Please model this.
Amino acid sequence: MKIEVLGCHGSETPAAKTVGFLVEDRILLEAGTVSSVLTLDRQLAIHSVIISHLHLDHIKGLPFLADNLIGEPGSAITVYGIDEVLEGLKSHLFNDAIWPDFTRIANGDVSVLRFASLQKRATTRIGEVEVTPYPVNHTIPSIGLFLRKGDCTVLYTGDTAPTEEIWKIGRQRPDLSALLIEVSFPDSMERIAKVSGHMTPTMVARELEKLDRPEVPVYVFHMKPKYEGAIIAELQHLLGGAVTVLREGDVLQF
Ligand SMILES: [Zn+2]
Ligand SMILES: [Zn+2]
Model:
């Protein structure tokens, strides 16, 4: 499975972009960053977008991706999410006030956007990838995902504070090839991490103990750019070389 990192931060600066991962060139996992990085041709290749939850750093690229599809007959994108996400996108974003309702704008005989519901704990095939979401522990309804292609499975946590179910499932998956886990704040900001449903390096270390799969490579994402230096130093101190900090432009191949 190929995963290209378009953005891997929890906020934005000239050097850091909000979350967006391009899977197999055709599936966008999180839409925080897309059109500011990919050429128009590469944007047109995307057929599906998966959104873990409604926070702005995960959706803000979607309006421009949709806009860039206009006038391309047959080009359409299916947006996958749990019902709370799809309802929120319809009522708060594509509501003909903030941005047009792209489900009612046609490219030839198809709508530019289509919404498709993901059911928790059920597997949905999206192109070549099978996706299975589980609830995680954030301030609003949010999911972590198992992404499977052939004999390779990647676990993506989305945004979450310490959680349980994804680790229980992950322990039982012999084909687990990689973990992408969020970390947002340094240990000194543990209180803020807790109230905002995020993790510090110490929390990440505890979550990895729950997963108990030391052979699985671990990648961290969602650092708040302002605290990235402190977070990386603490991860190094706690976990040494056991985790890799993702960077915009990285291409992972599992
Ligand atoms: Zn986020
Ligand atoms: Zn969030």
